[in-house]
């Protein structure tokens, strides 16, 4: 085998409840993740010469990793050791304990710095692809453990479906879902820094002086998911980071308002933003809503998707 391709989904946070800041700078979270049908693909292959478009080789121990990226947002993705997929391959190579070399070709559709965990998704895909390419055959629990060391959202990209994440979001439990949900994502120009959004969240909370409650999974949201009730789910969507994202990017309020005006069942900033997510009644409603948002000129582009979908999975190789 000389190449393995893995498809991996974006996520939307149906509930993102942020607890008090801990001594280590992180926050305890209750994070209801939902994987949607907007996918990146990562192909891990044995390099022959210098692959076209590849960044500089990243060498660690006996491992050599290169990466190339294609897609509309390719220019925003690092091609060196700051790339999370590269870091994932290096972490797995350390587990392999033998000389390895790999090229990662990333085909991006998930927005970069858009609050939909595109970088974490690519890291998860790299773990699955390299595990198969190198014949390691690690079980999914071992990959989840490696992923947790790379970032809080990486384990869910492996896990997929719908799940409650606790701790920093890396401890996952599956959530029963009684149907399929239809989404519209309004993509913004540029991105938002996740650390900056968390920092603004802390600043806003400190300015009020009110104590921060310990986060818990919302019972109404869990019931709506189990019943497959899109209207009830739309009412229950919540994101504690949204006020901070709107403070840093006030134009997102216009995007959210336009979605509500055109019949979205629910509207929120996805994760740390700036992508905005809108829940629709059906595929036809999602298509109409996407067109209305484009016509309203409140976003760079729109995409439609459905969920839940599986996590990272091999599609070729």
Automatic annotation (TrEMBL):
Residues 83-161 form the GHMP kinase N-terminal domain. Residues 221-295 form the GHMP kinase C-terminal domain. GO terms for molecular function: 4-(cytidine 5'-diphospho)-2-C-methyl-D-erythritol kinase activity; ATP binding. Gene3D superfamilies: 3.30.230.10, GHMP kinase, C-terminal domain (3.30.70.890). ATP binds at residues 111-121. Pathway: Isoprenoid biosynthesis; isopentenyl diphosphate biosynthesis via DXP pathway; isopentenyl diphosphate from 1-deoxy-D-xylulose 5-phosphate: step 3/6. InterPro entries: GHMP_kinase_C_dom (IPR013750), GHMP_kinase_C_sf (IPR036554), GHMP_kinase_N_dom (IPR006204), IspE (IPR004424), Ribosomal_Su5_D2-typ_SF (IPR020568), Ribsml_uS5_D2-typ_fold_subgr (IPR014721). The active site is at residues 11, 153. It is an enzyme of class 2 (transferase). Belongs to the GHMP kinase family. IspE subfamily. Catalyzes the phosphorylation of the position 2 hydroxy group of 4-diphosphocytidyl-2C-methyl-D-erythritol. NCBIfam families: ispE (TIGR00154), PRK03188.1 (NF002870). This is 4-diphosphocytidyl-2-C-methyl-D-erythritol kinase. It comes from Sphaerisporangium melleum. The gene is ispE.
């Amino acid at each position: 085998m000389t190449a393995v391709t893995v498809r991996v989904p974006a996520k939307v946070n149906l509930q993102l409840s942020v607890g008090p800041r801990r001594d280590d700078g992180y926050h305890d979270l209750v994070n209801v993740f939902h994987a949607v049908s907007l996918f990146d693909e990562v192909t891990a292959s044995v390099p022959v010469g210098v692959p076209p478009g590849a960044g500089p080789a990243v060498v660690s121990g006996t491992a050599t990793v290169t990466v190339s990226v294609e897609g509309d947002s390719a220019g925003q993705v690092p091609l060196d050791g700051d790339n999370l997929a590269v870091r994932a391959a290096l972490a797995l190579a350390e587990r392999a304990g033998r000389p390895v070399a790999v090229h990662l070709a990333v085909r991006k559709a998930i927005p970069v710095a858009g609050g939909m965990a595109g970088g974490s998704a690519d890291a998860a895909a790299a773990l699955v692809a390299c595990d198969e390419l190198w014949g390691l055959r690690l079980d999914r629990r071992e990959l989840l453990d490696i992923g947790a060391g790379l970032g809080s959202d990486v384990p869910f990209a492996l896990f997929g479906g719908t799940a409650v994440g606790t701790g920093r979001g890396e401890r996952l439990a599956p959530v029963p879902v009684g149907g399929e949900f239809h989404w519209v994502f309004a993509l913004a120009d540029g991105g938002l820094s996740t650390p900056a959004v968390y920092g603004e969240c802390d600043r806003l909370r400190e300015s009020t002086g009110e104590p921060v409650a310990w986060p818990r999974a919302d019972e109404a949201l869990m019931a709506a998911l189990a019943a497959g009730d899109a209207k009830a789910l739309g009412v229950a969507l919540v994101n504690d980071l949204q006020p901070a994202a709107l403070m840093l990017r006030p134009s997102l309020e216009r995007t959210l308002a336009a979605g509500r005006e055109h019949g979205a069942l629910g509207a929120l900033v996805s994760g740390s933003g700036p992508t905005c997510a809108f829940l629709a009644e059906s595929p036809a409603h999602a298509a109409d809503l996407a067109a209305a948002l484009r016509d309203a000129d409140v976003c760079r582009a729109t995409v439609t998707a459905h969920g839940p979908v599986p996590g990272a999975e091999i599609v070729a190789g």
